[in-house]
Amino acid sequence: MKKFMYAVLASLIAGMILEKFTPYKIVTFAVDKFILFFAFLTNKINIPMYFLVAFIIIAAIVIVKSIILLIKPKFHRYKSDKIFGIKWEWSYDSFSRQLNPSSFDSVDPFCPKCDMRLIYLNDSDWDGIDNIAVHCEKCDLHKTFEGKDIYDLEASVKNEIERRVRSGEYKKALEAK
Ligand SMILES: [Zn+2]
């Protein structure tokens, strides 16, 4: 009996909800609200001229700055080259307009012979001098950079990239592609 009562109650509530929210009613409700919103948009308001001028100037600055950010400097196309006998690939921070050591997102070494990603190995001497090496697991190419750790090596590579961009040498590498 209790279950039956619940079923009756549920169907009554469902019926009331369906009665209240027919598709026709939902559509007319939405159209009503849209018309009200449109009427609100066509309202005329009195605002001081300086407010409008300031708004237009700020909007223009934001648009021009966005366009400048979207147009990347030419050096952003220079993303790989052979440096110190190794092939390097790198990416720039997309917001960098001027090239400097902090403009880089990453700098990665690749094998100049077989294009395999190179791994870093520690070739340091027993006397504590840092020697970092890059090694190819595919063709055994091995190159040691004496007196440098991994950060020194990457800094030297970034400095060389910066030099090639500043001197315009990078354009040759771009044209060769
Ligand atoms: Zn290799």
Outline the structure in words.
The protein is of the alpha+beta class and 177 residues long. It has 2 domains: 2-70, no CATH class; 74-176, no CATH class. 47% of the residues lie in helices and 18% in strands. It is built from 5 helices and 6 strands; from the N terminus they run H-H-H-E-E-E-E-E-E-H-H. The protein has helices spanning 2-20, 23-41, 49-70, 150-167, 170-175, and strands spanning 80-83, 86-92, 104-110, 119-122, 131-135, 142-146. The strands form 2 sheets. Strands 1-2-3 form a 3-stranded antiparallel sheet, covered by helices on one side. A 3-stranded antiparallel sheet has the order 4-5-6, with no helix packed on it. The chain is elongated. The N and C termini lie far apart (84 Å). Residues 111, 113-114, 116, 136, 138-139, 141 line the site of zinc ion (ZN).
State the helicity in percent bands.
Answer: 40-55%
| Major β-sheet strand ordering | 1-2-3
Distance between the termini: 84 Å
The counted number of beta strands is: 6
* Total individual domains: 2
Question: Helix tally?
Answer: 5
Alpha carbon gyration radius = 33 Å
The percentage of residues in β strands lies in 15-25%
Structural class, please? alpha+beta
Poorly predicted runs are: none
**Order of helix and strand elements from N to C terminus:** HHHEEEEEEHH
Q: Tell me about the biggest sheet?
A: 3 strands, antiparallel
Give the rounded overall mean pLDDT: 88
Query: Which geometry do the CA atoms define?
Result: elongated
Small-molecule components bound: zinc ion
